[in-house]
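[Discussion] Sanity-checking designs against the backbone

I'm trying to build intuition for which residues belong where. Below is a structure token string of 284 positions. I'd appreciate it if someone posts a full sequence so I can compare it with mine line by line.
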């Protein structure tokens, strides 16, 4: 097995929204904001090369949204999904599986593209891939609550179903390994219903793709929960459970949104689980 970091560009979000009730005087120590109170965030994906399977975990925001939408998020950076894939020697047509942790636009937008230059119809951006979600989250995304409706864009979601390429993962752990030989899935419901966190056996390590369960190293303390989360108290419980597991089992956490750090580990301290060290995936 080989793992590849796939950078798809950066965007900006309000620091207060990203840290909820935590005061700016505390969160700005790890995530400094600009004059508009915006912090820089990555959209970092993971490519898993395992035998005949080439799986991409999340896809970034994509390139199909109009300027009216994108101006709210200040996209920047020189890297795109296609450029990053090409740098690793691959193209979209090589991808066999797309693992979508959840269907918020910054995680799944790159899964769908315009099918023609006139922008008259949409199609999957990976014509040879199976797209993986789960029934509980799919229902949540296609019948969205008022709080999350702006994050679940129908143009990112419905074309997946119409394509016939959509597949569902069940929550029964014993069945997960029947689908992905070297991957377990942790389901988390605090941020959104049934977000999927893949835990990958890699060399002698376990790598957890943290998605929005842990956006950055600045979110490690339990109260540091995003204002976007639908059930923040549940997020705190899930973070406590998962971070303790990571500290106990020395699991390496791959950070999708941290603009500085690719990966990190945590350790037990008198103040609870805290950052141990940061590292690059290539260090392993």
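Best answer:
Here's mine. Compare freely.
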């Amino acid at each position: 097995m080989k793992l590849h970091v796939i950078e798809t560009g950066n965007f900006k979000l309000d620091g207060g929204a990203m840290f909820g009730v935590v005061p700016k005087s505390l969160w700005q120590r790890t995530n400094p904001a600009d004059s508009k109170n915006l912090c820089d965030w990555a959209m970092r994906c993971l490519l898993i090369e395992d035998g005949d399977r080439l799986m991409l975990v999340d896809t970034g925001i994509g390139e199909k949204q109009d300027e009216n939408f994108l101006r709210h998020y200040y996209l920047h950076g020189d890297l795109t999904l296609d450029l990053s894939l090409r740098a690793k020697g691959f193209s979209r047509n090589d991808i066999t599986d797309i693992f979508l942790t959840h269907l918020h636009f910054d995680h799944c937008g790159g899964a769908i593209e315009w099918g023609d230059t006139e922008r008259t119809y949409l199609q999957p951006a990976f014509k040879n891939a199976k797209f993986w979600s789960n029934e509980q989250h799919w229902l949540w995304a296609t019948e969205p609550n008022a709080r999350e409706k702006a994050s679940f864009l129908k143009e990112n979601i419905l074309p997946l179903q119409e394509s016939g390429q959509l597949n569902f993962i069940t929550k029964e752990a014993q069945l997960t390994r029947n689908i992905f030989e070297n991957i377990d899935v942790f389901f988390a419901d605090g941020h959104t219903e049934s977000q999927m966190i893949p835990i990958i056996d890699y060399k002698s390590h376990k790598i957890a793709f943290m998605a929005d369960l842990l956006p950055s190293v600045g979110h490690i303390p339990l109260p540091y929960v995003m204002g976007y989360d639908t059930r923040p108290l549940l997020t705190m419980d899930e973070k406590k459970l998962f971070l303790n597991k990571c500290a106990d089992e020395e699991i390496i956490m791959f950070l999708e949104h941290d603009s500085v750090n690719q990966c990190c580990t945590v350790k037990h301290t008198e103040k609870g689980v805290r950052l141990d060290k940061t590292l690059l995936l290539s260090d392993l």
